[in-house]
Amino acid sequence: MRENYLVFGSPLIQDEEINEVVQSLKTGWLGTGPKVAKFEEEFKQYTGAKYALAVNSCTAALHLSMLVLGLKPGDEVITTPMTFAATANTIIHVGATPVLVDCDPETQLIDPQKIEDAITPRTRAIIPVHLTGRPCNMDAIEDIAQRHNLTVIEDAAHAIETKYKGKKVGNISRLTCFSFYVTKNIVTGEGGMVTTNDEDLANKIKMYALHGLSRDAWKRFSDDGYKHYQVVFPGYKYNMMDLQAAIGIHQLRRVDKWLERRNEIWTMYQQAFAKLPVELPPADEADTTHARHLYTLMIDKEKAGISRDEFMGKLHQKNIGTGVHYLGIHLHPYYQDTYGYKPSDFPNATWFSERTVSLPLSAKLSNSDIEDVITAIHETLQGV
Ligand SMILES: *Cc1c(COP(=O)(O)O)cnc(C)c1O
Fold this sequence. Notes:
The chain has two domains: about 15-255, Type I PLP-dependent aspartate aminotransferase-like (Major domain) (Aspartate Aminotransferase, domain 2), CATH 3.40.640; about 255-380, Aspartate Aminotransferase, domain 1. The protein is about 40% helix and about 10% strand. It has helices at about 15-25, 35-45, 60-70, 85-95, 110-120, 140-150, 200-210, 240-255, 255-275, 300-305, 310-315, 335-340, 345-355, 365-380; strands at about 50-55, 75-80, 95-100, 125, 150-155, 165, 165-170, 175-180, 190-195, 290, 295-300, 355-360. α4 (about 85-95) links the parallel β2 (about 75-80) and β3 (about 95-100).
């Protein structure tokens, strides 16, 4: 058995970003400044979007996206139950109502037909989530949005590298939100980004993310001399710091190299588990790039002889950390109490919620780490 604990989702931090952070500390410019501007510029180039606005989380990115669209109480936003709480919470933060629709029984992604069925005169936006890094059916979703005059905001927290039919995620919909939280494919500690091709929305996001101060207020204490600013909206404190961007700049430069490594690990897992009594991730759809953010197995007690939670417990005893992505939104007490959701309302999402387990998948893993995971899983499933 391995000696030290393999932490799920531990980031790979290298010397370039360590030195960059130290350099920021030495110059004293810790807050929003030139490194944030550089990170935004490089992220813009990476996605091909016209504007990239750095913020301090994907949660902030989602919240700002809905604010600048003017969403308000009485509005409805359609999303999937198979997501992190932030997707639903930020809909609630603007006073709107989350409307969940079930996911596809193969891909776990939001089902476009069910989106269409859930549209009412109050629907304003759709938030597809590219769960695990696999792209949603954006052709169908964009088509629905156009026909019903809705805005698409992509939750791309798992999908920094994802491409859909030749198009880069970040340059498909009106607004796209990314995360650089510690477990994501690239990290800044906490951090997020909104991309858009709409200049007006971009200007508003920038402003709303920093107290609603007029443009470039972050330069107000720079060596250009003091600048007056004006408050034009009661904004938020969502700006990214240079200390965070210092990490992100170097992480972003490695993202495609790291994706190759993630692909290698993915293939090793697919081969190693092919004959086990568990469900593996489905094949990629043609002409798409999967970001390989999460590798998930479905553990069905009937077939595997062990429940998902027992399986996670056994791996934990063998020093392998795993995760659950996710317990569906409709299974949490707040949303059940507030919206009356029952497990049977979204049977596919409930099925996945009870069976899904995410294995370690990161550029930090060595081949011997991967071997340890594979061995531990074989032992666990043979021992039942
Ligand atoms: C991580 C995550 C978020 C939130 O990202 P933060 O940067 O932690 O705010 C939102 N949606 C999904 C699907 C996520 O995985």
